[in-house]
Amino acid sequence: MAKIGILGGTFDPPHYGHLLIANEVLSELNLDEIWFMPNQEPPHKQKSESVENSDRLQMLELAIRENPAFTIEKIELERTGPSYTVDTMKILNERFPDHQFFFIIGADMIEYLPKWHKIDELIELVQFVGVERTRYSSETDYPITYVDIPAFEVSSSMIRERVQLGKTVRYLLPDKVIDFIREKHLYET
User: Which residues neighbour 14 within 8 Å (Cβ) at sequence distance 6 or greater?
Assistant: First the structure.
């Protein structure tokens, strides 16, 4: 049975924090692959209105290209409306009955778990993997496997703000993604 980690998010833009989390979970849990799953419309937060899905997808492809264990799962980009994890996991479990899925979430999402759509059904479909984030509690009554991740305080919103202000984003995300952002003039206004 293939063991697959899923890292969902807007990836607007993808950064080294995403890659670090994926690599640490891959290694620590001895997974076969990590599937990066960009959201169409996350129910809990807004994605940037200025960036097309095709641009987010291209940035993600550039970011993960160097690691053969990383791939992109586009299932949520193919659907319209809010992306509920329970619906996605039902489809993935049907499509890949020989896979075991591990859904990676940060401590901010661990706190939010009681509010997830059909959470009691969802915990039967997937094993949650929690990673620490400062300023958030990782305590929950839900079954979670924890993986320690080296602290790296970076967020997509911080990167967007820095680009908008003309500040450097070097060493926060891969150079190929930075080049793409500059070439397409993303996040500048």
Answer: 36, 56, 59, 60, 63, 64, 156, 173, 174, 177
Q: What is the pLDDT of residues 39-80, one digit of tens each?
A: 876 555 554 566 899 999 999 999 999 999 999 999 999 888
User: With contact defined as beta carbons under 8 Å apart, do 82 and 118 qualify?
Assistant: no
Rounded to two decimals, the pTM is 0.91
Query: CA end-to-end span of the chain, whole Å?
Result: 46
HSE (side-chain half, CA atoms, 13 Å) at 57: 12
Does domain 2-154 match CATH 3.40.50.720? no
Neighbours of 31 (CB within 10 A): 21
Please state, in angstroms and as integers, the Cα–Cα distance from residue 121 to each residue in 27, 89, 90, 114, following that order: 28, 10, 10, 12
Question: What residue segments make up the domains of the chain, in order of their start?
Answer: 2-154
The tokens for 111 are 């706190």
Query: What is the edge-to-edge ordering of all strands in the sheet holding 70-72?
Result: 70-72, 33-38, 2-9, 99-106, 127-131, 144-147
One-letter amino acid for residue 60 of the chain: L
φ/ψ of 100, rounded to 5, equals -110, 125
CA distance 152 to 169: 14
